[in-house]
Specification:
By secondary structure, the protein is of the alpha/beta class. It contains seven helices and six strands.
Length: 202
């Protein structure tokens, strides 16, 4: 993993020196290398601090991701691997408390669309607002959309845009996407709608 990332990060830093870079890893030593050697800006952890999405048990290798992120002082994306909204919120509360106690101030929550959750569980996004943290949604072309619409990934852009729009309306702050232009257009429309709605309530 380190070798693959070194090659990619060297190229990105050369070609896009001003870009903000996020690295997706659940290994604390990889996170440390990426931030210290390449100036990576954000660490994205899909293991919920050391729990796998497949088996819901601690990873075999010893993990110190929370402590490492605290030492590195970079924003941290914490993705849930829990299968329902209640256990997700309970875990997020405990993990946020632990991270804040370690000094990690910038935590972004990812509900983990498609990770062990059925379609209904994936649409309870607004309930995460009680946690008072930015929410990132990564739903782009995922199986939850494909299964509902009976399409493959290549034909799931329209469904993805609908989900992105709903996510933004329900409080998502960040979208992780494949199709940038379509996502930007959804953001522009939702922002315009929210502005118009706020004016009507004055």
């Amino acid at each position: 993993e380190m070798q693959r990332l070194k090659a990619g990060l060297l190229l990105l830093k050369k070609e896009l020196p001003n870009a903000l870079l996020s690295v997706d890893t659940y290994r604390s030593n990889v996170a440390k290398m990426c931030v210290e050697e390449f100036g990576v800006d954000i660490i994205n952890d899909v293991s919920e601090g050391g729990i796998t999405g497949r088996t819901n048990v601690l990873l075999e290798e010893e993990q110190q991701m929370f402590k490492t992120v605290a030492q590195l002082k970079v924003p941290y994306i914490l993705m849930s691997v829990k299968s329902d909204i209640v256990s997700m919120i309970k875990s997020f509360v405990a993990e946020l408390n632990e991270l804040h106690a370690l000094g990690v101030k910038d935590v972004i929550l990812d509900p983990g669309f498609g990770f062990g959750k059925d379609l209904k569980q994936n649409y309870h996004l607004e309930k995460l607002s009680v946690l008072d943290a930015p929410v990132l949604v990564g739903a782009s072309r995922k199986s939850m959309i494909q299964q509902l619409l009976n399409v493959d990934a290549a034909h799931s852009l329209n469904g993805t845009t609908v989900v992105h729009t709903l996510a933004l309306m329900k409080g998502a702050s960040i979208l992780r996407v494949h199709d940038v232009q379509e996502a930007v257009e959804a953001i522009q429309i939702v922002e315009q709608y929210k502005q118009a709605s706020s004016l009507l309530t004055l």
